[in-house]
């Protein structure tokens, strides 16, 4: 069992991450002793242009002073597309919205203390160059607005889309027996609401403030927000919330 996490032994936790991305969170929860119910309500798919805009940006990477990534999935897709960039072209710096995103892109020069797009925009330096912003189709504009206000030209490129999926079997009994549910993105909150409404366990844990805000908009007020916006932080917050009950 992972020693730096409070125990989740005897607890049943719902994971709502996209099936292809749930493995890391599921493993951490199991290591902490939990029984995990994976009920993915979203999946990730390619951008509508099949990655053409991203590849065009990569082909012209020398024009960019910064590359900004705001999710692990977007970071992974950028890193994969950029794998053939020659070292002589890699003069750009990388900013990531959080530590998990920084890890996915292979390291970052700037990660804000509060891991949100708004905080990244606030901590971003002033400048007059060009920034490649590689994001999900549904990503917000907080960073974009702040960076433009500091003088930067922003090229926003969609790297992927998150689309809702409906579970193939009835999960209402599973949900009623679970101790807690975790949400890692606002898109998963919206997708869950489309399928299940606000039916969920009493303990609801959000990875960050934007995800918590999406839950608050549904009328859920006692949302636990992970202080560290990583998978480990999400597990830690879940364990601490249940430990106090």
Descriptive notes:
- With 245 residues, this protein is α/β, with parallel strands linked by helices.
- The mean pLDDT is 89.
- It has two domains: 12-41 and 165-243, Rossmann fold (3-Layer(aba) Sandwich), CATH 3.40.50; 46-161, 3-Layer(aba) Sandwich (Rossmann fold).
- Helices cover 36% and strands 21% of the residues.
Concise synopsis of the structure shown:
The chain contains ten helices and ten strands.
Question: Keywords, please?
Answer:
245 residues, single chain, 2 domains, Rossmann fold, alpha/beta, 10 helices, 5-stranded mixed sheet, elongated, 21% strand, 5-stranded parallel sheet
Helix/strand/pairing category = alpha/beta
In round numbers, the mean pLDDT is 89
By DSSP (H or I, 4+ residues per run), the number of helices equals 10
Q: Give the uncertain stretches in residue-range form.
A: none
Largest beta-sheet details: 5 strands, parallel
Gap between N and C termini: 22 Å
The number of strands is: 10
What is the level-2 CATH architecture name of the largest domain?
Answer: 3-Layer(aba) Sandwich
Classify the fold: give the CATH topology of the largest domain: Rossmann fold
| Element pattern in H and E | EHEEHEHEHHEHEHEHEHEH
Report the portion of residues in β strands: 15-25%
Radius of gyration: 19 Å
Major beta sheet, strand line-up: 2-1-8-9-10
* The level-1 CATH class of the largest domain: Alpha Beta
Bulk shape:
elongated
Helix content: 25-40%
Number of domains: 2
